[in-house]
Amino acid sequence: MKVLVTGGAGYIGSTTAKALEEAGHTPIILDSLLSGPRVFVKDRIFYEGDIADRDLVARVVEEHPDIDCTIHMAARIVVPESMEQPYEYYRDNVAKSLELFDQLVTLGKPNVLFSSSASLYAMVEDFEVTEESPLDPASPYARTKRVMEMVLTDMAAATDLQAIILRYFNPIGSDPDLESGIYVREPSHVLGQLVMAAQGLKDAFTITGVEHPTRDGTGIRDYIHVWDLAKAHVVAVEQFDDVLQKAAAPSTIINVGTGDGVTVRELVNAFENVFGEKVPVREAPPRPGDAVGAFANVDKARDMLGWTSESTVEDAIASALAWSRKRKSILGYD
Question: Which candidate, 170, 134, 193, 135, places its Cα nearest to that of 295?
Answer without folding.
Answer: 170
